[in-house]
Amino acid sequence: MNCFADRGPEAALPSWVTTSPSLADALISMFDRDRRPLYPQAAPFVAHVDEAGDEPFHYPYEVGYAYEGLPESFFAPRFGSGLERWAPLLPPLLPGLSCGEGGTPLVAARQAAAWAGLPDLLVKDESANPSWSHKDRLSLCTISAAAAAGAIGTVISSSGNHGASAAAYSARAGLKCIVLCDDGVSLPHARQMRAYGAAVIAMPRAARWPLLDILSRQPGWYLIGNTAPTHTGHPFGPEGYKTIAYELFLELGRVPAAVSVPTSYGELLFGIGKGFAELKALGLAEGEPILIAAEPEGSAALGRFCNSGSPSALVPKNTIAHGIGSARVSFRGIAALRRSKGFAVAVHDQNTADAQAALARDGLWSEPASAAGLAALRNAAQQGLLPTGPLVHISTSTGLKAPYRAAAEIPRLAHADWAELRMVLATSYHLSLG
């Protein structure tokens, strides 16, 4: 059971929840639009299980809002850091939890645009968030939910950015954190999780899910990830990603023509799309951008669904872009592409590596999973699929987190030898010095 197991839903809520400026008023099933109270949330956050196909398919919840209560000046530009600026259109946020996330740079990337064959390109650099990835926008919302539940700790299965961000925000909220990683977790990610005080354990990938399910049922321990066979995830999480759409709208003075999003289970894709849909529904924007889901060829679950209609097909997971190497599709990803009239693009690992290098020439070092979004834009441009207008690539995290080239590749000198330095520069880097 979750943290609310032996407590009434209203009595369990701390005062900061009931006095929050949030206009969130319900959880809405993404299967039949049925509404239920915002609290409590019951792991594994499944709104409906559809057993009509070969395998059961799990539908998630999304958050509903009383939009009529939104102030007219809500989207007026203003200075400040942290997602609390958007509190009315987010679930209740724990006061003091914000770490200054959001407000990330929107950078013109001319050399990356030239590599991709684009007239221009803007990169939303999410590595500027506190734990260096887009996941901080999600964690602010999900860790707030854990605090509202009176949790003593959080549990998550992650081998990358989500685990690091959850560990950071759990620590800030005064909560313990347990992260179950797979055996392939990178050393930088593991070190970052441990630096925040999380208990981090690596194991075979298949072992994580049954253990996570047991952990999430321990008294006081709050699941912020997923245990359902088809990804559902915490309903509050994607709401934090809406703020990327809000920021792009204010920065550009309009919505972009297309947004390329590195995609695994589709939470980021869905959240960005929902943010733009809200802007349109509120009468602030005339339309919504096309969303492009960038997936690695080795595990393009969303693209395979678009082609075959099978939402639960298992595919191999083998890619340098391990952060988006999803083996299963999620309904959030499907809904986001349908709503935006977007499409999925499968990207070869070599194209991802080339995109990473192209972004670096613009001073932007992305991890491979992030760079896949630029490679997807290049593929789409070559096929004539891109609309006219501003193109935005969401760069989700820094290359420091998942370097796939070892430091041993760097040439080394044993002594201060000028002649040898000249030779190494010429042979290794094609730099000729007099």
Description:
This protein folds into two domains: 97-403, Rossmann fold (3-Layer(aba) Sandwich), CATH 3.40.50; 409-434, no CATH class. It is of the alpha/beta class. It is globular, with a radius of gyration of 22 Å. The model is unreliable at 4-10 (pLDDT under 50). 53% of the residues are buried. α3 (135-148) crosses α4 (161-172), α7 (237-252) crosses α8 (267-281) and α8 crosses α10. A hairpin with a 6-residue loop joins β3 and β4. The strands form four sheets. It has a six-stranded mixed β-sheet with strand order 6-7-15-12-13-14, sandwiched between helices. The chain has a four-stranded parallel β-sheet with strand order 10-9-8-11, with helices on both faces. The chain has a three-stranded antiparallel β-sheet with strand order 2-1-5, with no helix packed on it. It has helices at residues 15-18, 110-116, 135-148, 161-172, 187-195, 205-216, 237-252, 267-281, 301-308, 331-340, 349-360, 368-382, 418-429; strands at 24-29, 35-36, 48-50, 57-59, 61-65, 106-108, 122-125, 153-157, 176-182, 199-203, 221-223, 258-262, 290-296, 343-347, 391-395. The protein has 13 helices and 15 strands.
Strand content: 15-25%
User: Any idea what the shape is?
Assistant: globular
H/E element string? HEEEEEEHEHEHEHEHEHEHEHHEHHEH
Span of the ends, CA to CA:
72 Å
Write down the oligomeric state: single chain
Q: What's the average pLDDT? A: 90
Which structural class do you get from the secondary structure elements? alpha/beta
Major β-sheet annotation: 6 strands, mixed
Q: What is the number of domains?
A: 2
CATH structural class of the largest domain: Alpha Beta
Low-confidence stretches: 4-10
What spatial order of strands do you see in the largest sheet?
Answer: 6-7-15-12-13-14
Structure annotation, total helices = 13
The CATH topology annotation of the largest domain reads as Rossmann fold
**Number of beta strands:** 15
The share of residues in helices is 25-40%
Rounded Rg: 22 Å
